[in-house]
Amino acid sequence: MKMPINQEKLLSSNSQVSGAQSRLVEGPWQEYRSKARHEAIRPLSYYTAVRKDVVALIPAGVRSVMEVGCAGGKTGEMLRNRGVETLIGIEIDQRLASLAQKHYSQLLIGDAEELELAHVPVQSLDCILYPDVLEHFRDPWVVLSRHRRLLRIGGYVVASVPNVRYYKNVRDLVLKGRWDYAEAGILDRGHLRFFTWKSVEALFESTGYRILSLRSNVRGSNLLRLVNRMVLNQLHHFLVKQYLVLAQKTDQ
């Protein structure tokens, strides 16, 4: 079934993407953005990895989750196996949604910046996941602020965010004058926003969250790690390729 313009498509766990049981809910919808068309050329295997690093940050006792950018649904499958009872997915690519749908209580096809999510009750979620998606948004500040109302008091956000300060980026920019976009990675062609640790921290604090935990995906040669130890970890943020954040909704 072709995606209609100016509508968002809602899938329940007992319906198919192209089946007659699919329901349409009124709401804004736009044609796939250029980033989505670009990403569609990637191999399917790119979207079927399990984000164990993201799942590992989810606090114990979480039972209701919304995953923004659920891709092929493998992370959702893992969440189900961990006891998550209500699982909502958002995915912009209809092909991927058809693979993921069976693992989710509800699956929305559309642009997360445009979906109204009127059918998701206020303060009904324990946790929202943003696995490498915030950098794809035109305005991640608005997304985090809007989604905040869906979290219960004390609810959580888990996100992974690339670090533009990674030493290879800095080296290429400063020494070579290069800022070359690529098929994947920190300078992915679909990335609209770029963050360092300080700007990640400011992003969450300015939208009503308190960061509880930070993990760093450190990459670099043994020599670079040795030099970092010798200078008392002063180079740490240059060796981080990705930050993994656990944040909590504040009372504001």
Distance between the termini: 43 Å
Strand order of the largest sheet: 2-1-5-4-3-6-7-9-8
CATH class group of the domain at 7-30 and 47-162 and 193-218 and 240-249: Alpha Beta
CATH homologous superfamily annotation of the domain at 7-30 and 47-162 and 193-218 and 240-249? Vaccinia Virus protein VP39
- Backbone shape: globular
CATH topology description of the domain at 7-30 and 47-162 and 193-218 and 240-249: Rossmann fold
Q: How many helix segments? A: 9
User: Proportion of β residues?
Assistant: 25-35%
The appropriate CATH architecture of the domain at 7-30 and 47-162 and 193-218 and 240-249 is 3-Layer(aba) Sandwich
Give, in order, the helices and strands.
EEHHEHEHEEHEHHEHHE
Q: Uncertain segments of ≥5 residues (pLDDT<50)? A: 1-9, 12-40
Specify the structural class: alpha/beta
Question: Could you tell me the number of beta strands?
Answer: 9
Question: Care to describe what's here?
Answer:
The structure is a single chain. The protein has 252 residues and is an alpha/beta fold. The protein has 9 helices and 9 strands. It has helices at residues 34-39, 52-55, 74-81, 94-100, 140-148, 167-176, 197-206, 222-230, 236-239, and strands at residues 7-12, 23-26, 64-68, 86-91, 106-109, 125-131, 151-162, 209-218, 240-249. Strand 4, helix 4 (94-100) and strand 5 form a beta-alpha-beta unit. Residues 1-9 and 12-40 have low confidence and may be disordered.
